[in-house]
């Protein structure tokens, strides 16, 4: 109501000559009259550094005005204005936790007027209560003093207004009187709010879960009743005794954006009891015990003492690569190219001569063969040659069909773009007597080197999961890379993607487009795929669905289009850890060959993981278009939990053994809905590693 009155008054003042001041104006007048600003800004010596001093003076004046405006918005209970200021200014710019001349902070005013929405907005921004209120008595005394002084000032001004004749000074006194009357009412409302408040109830719920072998996760919810005062902090306590005597530790949480806390440094295998209590300006409320009443820090690996699958793998691969390099470092292949016999150069096939010619450049058209193109993009722009062509180089002009194994080999090479020269030199050793496959791969390495040299860029990005083919016999391998910074290049330039697509003149018919035309038409789809394949899952435990299909030369895996580097999945919970007790239950269920739980059972209703799995399985079956009754024949993979770092883990849901992989020509009765695609298994594995 006060806010609406303020707006009405401001509109009225805009239409007519100045009249009686509004509460807003009275507030500003009060601050000018009080003479007790929080900081004495004129105390700085600005004589020595005039320019610098003026800037500092302006900055402090700006900060002071922002802080005063925030106090004003809180006092007038203008939620929209408070939210707008918190959105556009940092806590430092607003001076959020520095008391004003009355010893109050914005949060103090909000909670003592019981304005819960503004108080919550301030708390999420990092606001705190005034440190001057060390006890209930000190807060009560401070409020009584403010009320008494404001009432005394109102009486003094009222007497002056009544006794003085009407003049300019009298009009000014009337404005002061209105300002102090408004402040007197504010202080009385704050005092009444404090007196009527009581300590908050206990948190409505406290959930305890095992976060790791040495930590527990505590999640809690606000009390159902805060008893006329906003909760400003919580206290988490833990002990090995259900009576909490002795108390092993406690933590006070005053950042209330997320109501959870992780207790670190616990002993694995020890039971811990946890409780949480809430605090408002009247003190701490009663504690709420957790559900379950205790938890034991553990991890599923403790069940059989299993080591992490990937432990030491990266180091082992680096060591192996180092050994290979050591073996080849004295080979003749690592002599500079200029020292090679002249006859060697002349033996290079016609299709590769342009690599060594000074006029070597990008191709404009395709003439039946195998080609490499590199797509570099930034926002809505793409790198093109000076002829407005996508960079393309030839791999082999006699290659009529791309063998999948060659393509998959190239995708692995994309993990070590910086080693192309070394790989090319090593392949050169036995090129004369090598197989056709090795010849093709050598040409792939030459084309990569040419692309890197022409662009001046080593990292060509990620290989798209399938090459583009046309009816003219062209095969186009595409690499994709997003450029994060503003870079300039000598042989290429940035152009808008839409301009490139609209400006290209196709030389093929719509019925039989060339590979380059197909690339331009599907460019946005490929860029979207590349961006999605780099997205990461939020922390948590997930249920993944493993479905494969085989072809003559490859195995493909079903993935969602929105996240093609991860199996089809749904989230089970935010806590990624599987405790030892939970893993024991899963092992027991697998050992007796029980079906996947899809219907509730009374004797398991107290098992949180069982309930979470029921919900996740139903959601996943709906996602991949499989009738729920068919899930009876599905099984959970019980050999291990798939850990992706410390924050993401997976349980796998497997179809019956005969249906895990669909054979060529075999119909899949349960076709997933739109939004899925199948990737070659090797491509999926590389995307997962990225």
UniProtKB/TrEMBL annotation:
Pfam families: fn3 (PF00041). This is ANKF1 protein. One of its GO terms (biological process) is regulation of establishment of bipolar cell polarity. Residues 1-25 are annotated as: Disordered. The gene is Ankfn1_0. Residues 202-299 form the Fibronectin type-III domain. InterPro entries: ANKFN1, Ankyrin_rpt-contain_sf, FN3_dom, FN3_sf, Ig-like_fold. PROSITE patterns: FN3. One of its GO terms (cellular component) is spindle.
